[in-house]
Amino acid sequence: MSEIHDIAAQLLADHKGLLAADESVTSAGKRLGAIHVENTPESRRQYRNLFLTTPGVEQYLSGVIFHEETLGQAADDGTPFVKLLQQKGIIPGIKVDGGTQPLPNYPGELITEGLDGLGERLHAFYQQGARFAKWRAVISIGDGLPTDFCIAANAQAMARYAALCQENNIVPIVEPEVLIDGSHDLATSEVVTTKTLKEVFTQLQIHGVDLSGVILKSSMVISGNACPTQATPDDISAATLRCFKNTVPAEVPGIVFLSGGQSAVQATQNLNAIGKAAHGPWKITFSYARALQGPPLQIWKGKPENVAAAQAEFIKRLAANVAANSGEYAGE
Ligand code: 5MM
Q1: How much is the pTM?
Q2: pLDDT value, residue 192
């Protein structure tokens, strides 16, 4: 088994999931702002420290996606975060996309940037300990959206990223996020997600990417957050798995979910319904940011005296989602 296949298998180990701790400086600022903590390199380090030093995380986490800033930071005791994860047997990964920009001539649509110099950056990230990477594209649903061009342009960039990752012995996570924002219904979400994933896998194949060394990070097929009729977890599960059956080649070893603005409990309930109904061929688990970190951050509020309670809440969310992976989540 080559290195990337071995890393992919480790990331998709049974009874484990991934933590997306890769918020950009702007997004980290929003999370910290919500708990009235100033957004500085040191407060972002403390934020990462809270989660990465939680006792027992290694029981639940196979990998953590870092932001580039975190890759160079250290825990309170001076241990570099990368080393801390390695000591716990958790694989460090890195978000390498450069974020989104408006797609010229396509109002309301975004293109993910970051291909310039990416090969050299991936080489350097490997030297720093990263063994997998992540690239997120954003697809919006709305009046006349998404356009085929937006889906194709994003899928092409994503496929070039994935090919560069594999050239550098790094497992690419490809994350085409169909946004939850809007009044669209479940059926529309399924149509758009299906179209998006078909194009992503077409482009990955055209670019010669080894699909058995790729992980898909997907949104669930879910009703828009302003849709008057909200789908049930069982409906979400059925639509999501049907969409994957129609689009994700069997060679792909695994699919991990983003939470995408669902509440922490919703993300667990929906994962549980998926976990109950899923029967391969891919491994399925979570790669949440907000649904794992949101409730603990509300407890932490940047105060040292709240660290232990916040970390206990983090473990609670991890345990709930690991149970949900197998459809064994018992509720709160
Ligand atoms: C969709 O966001 C990803 C998953 O997080 P959620 O579970 O909260 O939806 C997440 O990995 C995201 O890509 C990072 O937080 C980086 O986002 P920004 O917008 O800060 O680059």
Answers
A1: 0.98
A2: 99
